[in-house]
Specification:
Layout (H helix, E strand, L loop, with lengths): L4 E7 L4 E4 L3 E11 L2 E2 L5 E2 L2 E10 H10 L5 E14 L5 E14 L3 H5 L11 E3 L12
Parallel strand pairs: 6-8
Antiparallel strand pairs: 1-3, 1-7, 2-3, 3-6, 4-5, 7-8, 8-9
């Protein structure tokens, strides 16, 4: 069985961070498939999908410190469905990517313009316990 999600996109808003026993950061990433024109002249518009992403622990700290609305990231993780009750008591479910690794893709210049300390570009952060995935024989 395989449960893996990979997305490259831009944050739609600043991350929300909860400081509990374990720090949790959540944010949405937009991915867009560019529109095109069919041979018969029909225009197919851009299509944007929104992905809910959740990060924990040290990765959540990095997200809180460096990621802002519009930041470009590569996220790799597992898909999870979470159940909750909305404000009217109606049961809802939401699909989330629980991030196992994250790579910030903005250039150093773009990152340096953010108000907090600049992060190096294309820096990768892995969740603890995922260091063994490089041991695959292929």
């Amino acid at each position: 069985m395989l449960n893996k999600a990979q997305v490259i996109g831009n944050l739609g808003a600043d991350p929300k961070v909860n400081n509990g026993q374990t720090k949790v950061a959540s944010f949405r990433v937009a991915t867009t498939e560019r529109g095109y024109t069919l041979q018969n002249g029909t225009q197919v518009p851009d299509r944007t999908e929104w992905h809910n992403v959740v990060c924990f622990g040290k990765m959540a700290e990095v997200v809180e410190k460096y990621l802002k609305k519009g930041a470009k990231v590569f996220i790799e993780g597992k898909m999870r469905t979470r159940q909750y009750d909305d404000k009217n008591g109606v049961s809802r479910s939401i699909m989330e990517i629980h991030a196992e690794s994250m790579e910030m893709l903005d250039s150093k210049q773009q990152t340096a313009q953010q108000p907090q300390q600049a992060a190096p570009s294309a820096t990768q952060y892995n969740s603890p316990g995922n260091d063994d995935k490089d041991d695959l024989p292929f």
